[in-house]
Amino acid sequence: MTIKDRTRAMAPDTPASTPPTLNDLRPGRRARVRRHRAAGPVRQRLLDLGILPGTCIAMVRSAPLNDPVEIRVGAVSVTLRRHEARTIEVEADDA
Asked: Residue 64 CB: number of other CB atoms within 10 A?
């Protein structure tokens, strides 16, 4: 997959200078977690839910008012608030 293809997997309004986050991922797309920018209890909660660096995740859908979002981590569905999703840096998954 080329860089151009990876960029298309993210939302079109994602600036090229900032790393893409889970918040930028479109429904139906998959990505791999790069790192967390969250701290404290929120970071621990995300890690406990299985959202670890290197983990493949899929954006399932967004709620009608665009918050929260549902993601799939392995066989588990997880719902996150948009501001939590912004703290998770991702890269497009080649699979």
From this structure: 6
